[in-house]
Amino acid sequence: MNPTLFKATAKSNLTLVVVFMFLMFMYLSIIISMFDPESADGTIATIEALPKELVSAMGLSEASTTLTSFIANFYYSFVAILFPMIFCIIVANRLVARHVDTGSMAYLLSTPNSRLTILTTQALYLVASVTALFGLTTIAGIAVSQAMFAGQLDIRGFLRLNLITTLIFYAISGICFFFSCLFDEVKHSLAFGAGIPVASFVLNMLAKVSGRYVWIRNFTLFTLLNPTQILAGGSSIAPAVIIPTGIALITYAGGAVLFNRRSLPL
What we know:
The chain is built from 14 helices and no strands. The chain has helices at 3-12, 14-34, 40-49, 52-57, 67-75, 79-95, 97-102, 105-109, 115-148, 155-182, 186-193, 195-209, 227-232, 238-261. The two termini are 23 Å apart.
């Protein structure tokens, strides 16, 4: 890893990180403030007033009687997927494909650093930024919950939920990074690096709409992010740990190896 390049990359993407972190924290805080331990029935009635298909697609069909399950169903079924996914698509594309497309990769490769060193630095930055995004949001979520509903948050379950969400986004960012390394032009990198995560997101929502489409859940990584199951814990969450970790290792390593071996139009 090259520390100078890491700092330069962090500086150029700082605004993006801050914006997405603010959006995630804002929505998490709003959802926590919506919890009313005295009128869970009112919340259920409000949800039932919404179109059934919309409620199912957003993963709100589960009854939420505790603060932890309320946050899990309202935040981790939609918001915690949408914003980090957009973040991974944008940043992964900026780290490699845009440098090749604009020709600025030639300046990076003219330094004494090898291709592998440059790619390793960019990959570590993407992993670190995803970790920071979820890590700081997790700390903020615990702080807001304790300030508004002291003692009502299952902190161990909340940490487990955030850990698995982070692992799933290591895999998503790895997919985006792989295609950023594979293509010379941004439009091609985005077609696959954004297309696959967005398609997975849409399929995940479609699979929740009706029992007729439940088979679609086998084709999307976001199926592993089952808040109710993760909060319950046990061996059933093992696939949600093993599969995204494996995908992340393969895609990050595969992207770096491919980029190291291929010819560049520089």
